[in-house]
Fold each of these.
Amino acid sequence: MRCTSSKQVAIVGTGAVGSTIALCTMMKNVASELLLVDSARDFARGQSMDLNDANIVNSTKIRDGTLKEAGQAEVIVITAGAKQGPGESRQQLVDRNYDVLKEVIGGMQPIRRDAIMMLVSNPVDVLTSIAQNLSGLPRKQVFGSGTFLDTSRLTVYLSDLLNVSATCVHAYVLGEHGDSQFIAWDAASIAGRPLLSFPEIKNVDKEKVRLTISNKAMDIIQHKGSTYYGIGACGASLCESILRNSLDVRPLSVYVDEVDTVISVPAKLGAAGIEQIMPIPLAPNEQKQFLESAATLKAIGQRYS
């Protein structure tokens, strides 16, 4: 196992998402130091000062720094990127974020060889694939947050429906973190009992549930303009999995040989990055959705390979 004594996490992009990941990671007390990096250095400095004021329960050091320094962190979290504008296609958004990512990763070089890089910027699956190519790191050390947040939303939705704790619900949203994502209903369970055997689920409009989960971000944006608490908690949880070598299984954006693209599937995450992809049984219609989602992502990603 690699040495985990430094436990430094660099967060590149210190807006609402990056700063929330920093706060949640700090509160978990799993990092010895948080390094905040932003193209607006003064802003990153202000964020680090503000976060230091909140650091009253542990000894995590927080400071601003450079891309060069970020390249030497044990865990590198990239949240920097452009947001999708009105009428802008996904391809146009990828084009703009490719330029951002190229500048960010180029500024980190040479990157520490055992660093773990996590992409949170959207579209996360395609940008993870690009980061794997640009970083020079092994693929298992570069992954994206994928459908972890979508899965969190699903488990909360189902826990409310069935009146059980969300931690008891074992269900995944898989595929693209986007329009073609799908729910793996066939493999979902509670206490070892198939989810589809519950009377409350038999009458549920499953496509309506899928759309509710897929569209939740837009619903939040309509109310408050942006989303950051959910992904902040998910990002911090993933940092914790790495720094504690927890070997948690999460639906993450990883390279899958069978479909030759980066796509969200259950994967075991630990100190060395993606330790193992954990395939789950899919119903025939779910397998079809998975392949269609993979084809969509591969078509977009090929332009940058």
Amino acid sequence: MGQGSFWNERYAHTGYAYGTIPNAYLKEKAAGLAAGTILLPAEGEGRNAVFLATQGWETYAFDQSVEGGNKALLLAAQNDVEISYTVSEVENIRYPEKKFDALALIFAHFPGADRRTYHRKLSSFLKPGGHLIIEGFSKNHANYQQLNPKAGGPRDLTMLYDLEELKEDFNDFEFTEAAEQQVTLSEGEFHQGEASVIRIFAVKK
């Protein structure tokens, strides 16, 4: 099963796989920023994009899943906000360079061989002085997955994050926060329990 088919199947159900409330780290960091334009790659069913739109952000999102896009637009309508949502693979997505005030990669895991290329492409869409917010599973998260399948995350170790690799991917940023942390997730059905994540808050030079 291809990745697109996997996500379409996961998002085809009535409920929201990762819930409808925003990621806690994204919510915390966005609260300290002036609302502007933000891009959310691999945004799935739209929980983060819709929340940010309710906070006054001009929100752009994309994901490879048609079903995810449909759910995101439904959630936006239920919250009386508009979001710009594109169904696209990351390699095909196009935005003007230096368009966005913020870029948020929330559990946006890409194949290891392509990760750096994709991250640098996405960062090109961010304005100098723009903010980068990342939360994703670290390579140590594989230990938590073995203990608790509901912890979530890719099973492909190459798709899990390494802090030093991420710093190199985004080497034209100044890092305010960059750390691996153990957290307890409660995001819908598929992010539940103890997890090892990497959290980054940075500014593009």
Amino acid sequence: AGFQLTQAKLADMTVELGKGMLLAIHLGRLKDEGKLDHRQVSLGKLNSTREAIKIARECRTILGAAGITLEYPLMRHANNLESVLTYEGTSEVHQLIIGQAVTGESAYR
């Protein structure tokens, strides 16, 4: 049962990684065509950062107690991802940009 659970986690992580790559490719093509909007960039950054952090956390659960040791570089990656969430415009700013695009109303001034 443990191996099946690990396979399920790996499958879910693979799906999210694939979706993120497809989104990045799509956004890159829009940029090449001169059609990329800043709201789309926020969507891509927010999604990619959130999913990368989720994947790092899930990897930690697969490794068990070893996931928090220096034996694997997992915690270094997780810490780097936490900083990306901040310096890429912070998730809250991206949420406000996307929320305004969805509702037409600005939540900030």
Amino acid sequence: MKYRKKPVEIEAVQFADDPDTLIKINDGLGLDPVNVSYEDPDNPVLKIPTLEGVMTAQVGDYIIKGVHGEFYPCKPDIFEETYEPVEK
């Protein structure tokens, strides 16, 4: 049997280590707290609590808020293959 993924609208913000993006992730998506790790100062990562444990997003990854309010990171190439902008 074959199956097709149902169309689902999600909210997402592409992670960048700048104040405007971090505000969008916090206020726009609702990820609170926004926890950026600077353990490697040249490669900041966003730590995201998920049902599977803490996942990390690198600069350029998309932070997705799922239909049930869950958050998870997605690599840009996978995001662009899977999602398209929704016209309102």
